[in-house]
Amino acid sequence: MKVGIMGGTGNIGEGLARRICIGGKYDVMIGSRDPAKAEIAAQGVVDALAERGVKGTTCTGGANADCCDSDLIILSLPFDKIESTIESIGKDKFENKTIISLINPMLRYPKDKYFLHDRPPEESAALAIQKLLPESAKLTTGFNNVAAGKWMLLDEELDYSVVVCGDDKESKNAVKDLVSTVSKLQPLDGGPLKTSGIVESITPLVITLAMNNGLKDVGVYFR
Amino acid sequence: MKVGIMGGTGNIGEGLARRICIGGKYDVMIGSRDPAKAEIAAQGVVDALAERGVKGTTCTGGANADCCDSDLIILSLPFDKIESTIESIGKDKFENKTIISLINPMLRYPKDKYFLHDRPPEESAALAIQKLLPESAKLTTGFNNVAAGKWMLLDEELDYSVVVCGDDKESKNAVKDLVSTVSKLQPLDGGPLKTSGIVESITPLVITLAMNNGLKDVGVYFR
């Protein structure tokens, strides 16, 4: 199985690539607008695998479009880059694909130290992205609320819940399988994509909690 | 210190009364539209205290208006009963009071098994309630996301996070102090009342998670 990460050269994308490869069950394609940058990031993942003696999986770098050959595609791009990225790749390349959005649009209020969900008219980034994709594409949420600063700290466990919302049972199960190979993440079925706005809004809340309680890298666990 | 619980004869209100009294630091006034019902509920709390050998705190029952003598007032009423309750008691009785809203208005979609936040135009029940109260009243959120079914199960620990949002530092600290006397609840400063919409929306999500994952009484822990 292969996972493509569009925008895989950012901190979250690269951390995800490492964590997924280290899980030992998925190869990863790191995609970027700048394929040379993606190749450097991929080499970093390969080095991390060698350092840890992980065998059986590998990581390569390329253009964002190259991610469309993968079984699962993760969108790790800023929300305002999604439309142009899908357009430049071609909407048809996403036909029948299982796609994961970890995007949480946020508004920052530095004076009063809080963040809010920057809610699109569709109620969530995921529901807005769904409108840009072909009808056959199966979009889910995933990895939204994992504390961003922890992705690259490979020696730290990620002991959090990951809520997977989506309208297609099979693709949700595929995403839950992926999630459960990453550190100690606990995948949970969050119902249809219509609930994704709540999931996205938890990220601005955990950042607000970190700021106001002297905490670092706050995540969420449902139990 | 005394805590008044308006709507304290419901499952959550009565469970809260027991848990707070058992904590041993606060007396509780259970308020109800029907004072006789509140007295019966209060007797139940007194019995539970005796059964557990807890001394030093007590519980009494009365009308909702009687809760206004308390140091902290918890609103444990349905959202659509708040306006008429405040009106019938008299807005001035809430002057300078610290008031806690645990209200989470929800919409239920039984066919697709999910719940959403029934978001008022003000973005949250708390922000809508704030407009009904005098300017000197200090409103916070508290106890919103505790699994409702667990309040009355006194032998079960409540090992969850409680996000306290509000615009007055001192009253937020008073609410955090109260929260930390209840079972193993962990109070967290959630920033200003403007973030309360996110906190309220977590409750429909935890119910959705319970339904879709074969779980019971799901709550949230931030870490």
From TrEMBL, chains A, B:
<dbReference type="GO" id="GO:0016651">
    <property type="term" value="F:oxidoreductase activity, acting on NAD(P)H"/>
</dbReference>
<dbReference type="InterPro" id="IPR010185">
    <property type="entry name" value="NpdG"/>
</dbReference>
<dbReference type="GO" id="GO:0006740">
    <property type="term" value="P:NADPH regeneration"/>
</dbReference>
<dbReference type="GO" id="GO:0050661">
    <property type="term" value="F:NADP binding"/>
</dbReference>
<dbReference type="InterPro" id="IPR028939">
    <property type="entry name" value="P5C_Rdtase_cat_N"/>
</dbReference>
<dbReference type="Pfam" id="PF03807">
    <property type="entry name" value="F420_oxidored"/>
</dbReference>
<keyword id="KW-0560">Oxidoreductase</keyword>
<protein>
    <submittedName>
        <fullName>NADPH-dependent F420 reductase</fullName>
    </submittedName>
</protein>
<dbReference type="InterPro" id="IPR036291">
    <property type="entry name" value="NAD(P)-bd_dom_sf"/>
</dbReference>
<dbReference type="InterPro" id="IPR051267">
    <property type="entry name" value="STEAP_metalloreductase"/>
</dbReference>
<dbReference type="GO" id="GO:0052851">
    <property type="term" value="F:ferric-chelate reductase (NADPH) activity"/>
</dbReference>
<dbReference type="GO" id="GO:0005886">
    <property type="term" value="C:plasma membrane"/>
</dbReference>
<dbReference type="GO" id="GO:0070967">
    <property type="term" value="F:coenzyme F420 binding"/>
</dbReference>
<feature type="domain" description="Pyrroline-5-carboxylate reductase catalytic N-terminal">
    <location>
        <begin position="2"/>
        <end position="105"/>
    </location>
</feature>
<dbReference type="GO" id="GO:0008823">
    <property type="term" value="F:cupric reductase (NADH) activity"/>
</dbReference>
<dbReference type="GO" id="GO:0015677">
    <property type="term" value="P:copper ion import"/>
</dbReference>
